[in-house]
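Reopening this ticket.

The earlier resolution said the output was attached, but the attachment link was broken on my side. Pasting everything inline this time so it's all in one place.
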Amino acid sequence: MPVAIWVLGAAIFAQGTSELMLAGLLPEVSADFAVSIPQAGLTVSVFALGMLVGAPILAIGTLRWPRRRALLAFLGVFVVAHIVAALTDSYAVLLATRFVAAFVYAGFWAVGASTAMALVSPARRGRAMSVVAGGITVAMVVGLPAGTWIGQHFGWRAAVWTVTALTLVAAGAVLTAVPDTRAHTVLRARDELRGVAVPRLWLSYGLTATSTAALLGTFTYLSAMLITTTGVRADWVPLVLLGYGLGSLAGMAGGGFAADRWPRGVLAAGFGTLTVVLALLSVTADVPAAVAILAVVLGFAGFGTNPALNSRVFGIAPGAPTLASAGNISAFNVGISAGPWLAGLALTAGLGYPSVPWIGAGLGVVAMLLLAVDVLVGRAPRRAAEPVGVAVGCG
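Inline output:
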């Protein structure tokens, strides 16, 4: 495997840590800026919105850029946004930096994925993408609890500075290891747009967005719930998040293995387990041991469906590989944005933290209903069997 592939995965890890860690530091951000915890949760939603907008725009707009220069440009903007975030005393400025950082992070995903595909033979593309996409999983297992620990002990700004340093190291590695080649793909936007005009593709996007919202609404406020409702000491929160991350890693690995054989079975089992776990979290929110165990299963179920959700779009819309995959990245981020927003509405209304997993469980039921519709549509006459493509994860 070329060194550049591992470098791309490391850069995704650095940026993905920023995407995730503020969810574990909402109380610290809330106290520093004198805003409510639901308002602090907007730092997660705004990041998701930035990726939602950035993915399709930069997927199309950067295909003809020299690869290394594009990657370095994105990393440079990402670093500047984090420096401003670490120095600002304005909550509005903080939200703006989160949007800008996410926008170019989405660009890095788009260019990094195409670069990885160009660096290996077709027979090794799956393995290459597993390394690149594995960066976000490692960020979940290592970056999230480490960033939370740093933020709790040295302030959330110290965690932001740490991500800035990691990104600078990643930029140096990209400069050294990634060749500055140009993409050879001739972009025909009209053909790509026609390729995504497939109703079942948009149904698949609905599955992605709904299941992600079910997971991320609860995850965003998990740290705050642990402290205020479950009664867990703040210094134990990173350990619970580590358990969630380990569950996510196991789910991604197991889901990737099973998705090649039983793609719809993986989705059905994952959505069903996610719904049950979220309901149990609601009724056991004041039991520390139960919440700690359920957090592991939550990560496993939530991330176990990602390989199937990512790979299926290539088979549904083979004529639009660029926009189909970029659209799925956007769908993930619709869910990442909508889940915390809905949870924030419940908290603002005074319903309490146990209401948040109940909202997620309801969204899990919706995801299962959409999957049932997908099964019926997929069994329509003269519909070709759905091949499985390369799984490309995003967070």
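Reporter confirms the inline version is readable. Residues 382-395 have pLDDT under 50 and may be disordered. The domain at 1-187 is CATH 1.20.1250.20 (Growth Hormone; Chain: A;).
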